[in-house]
Amino acid sequence: MRKKPLTLSVVAVVAVVLLAAVVVWIFPVIRVNSIEVSGAERVSAETVLADSGIAEGDNLLRIDASGAASRIAKQPWVRGVTVSRHFPSTVDIAVTEREVVGFVEHDDGAHLIDHQGHAFLIDTPPDEAVEITGEVEDEAAVNAAVAAIATVSDPIRREIASLEVKSSHAMELRLHDGRTIYWGVDDANEQKAAALEHVIHREGQHWDISNPSLVTVR
User: In what residue span(s) does the POTRA domain sit (predicted)?
Assistant: First the structure.
């Protein structure tokens, strides 16, 4: 006989909880008060916010995080993006931009290439991007060049004017001061990058680091 009042009480509590959940879901009780954008340099924060479709005052529980991320990811400079809620009132948009390592000049402009070998945009190359010349119509040759350049640090890349891909995908670097450094084929790139760091500020007009354990100069 005592179970009936208890059951009614449980039902009442559940009903109140469900009603509260419905109210919070339908009405913007939990509002977006701030939207924080991080990692956006080539793409403006204003563009990221506009593409997200999220605005202050929106219901935090009902924002379309996956849709916002998909729209932002369509920007050429964006390699990845995550959109997440932080209670009680913040949306965090974290952007990962592409790292440009090289570019190829065509009739329509400079085709920027990221560290994964993707040509993603025609634009003015940043200072750290190396021009790839030579067998640029050969996709494998361009990929070999990108693999080599990607192992070189940004400060050293800024001193390289171009990388020429020769026959059999052998590569030669030309510095802005006119000196040349023969890289060789696409192998032992990490070791060659370390050798490059060592020789680039030393005297010598023509260096050969194709065998990084036996660097030569002439």
Answer: 30-98
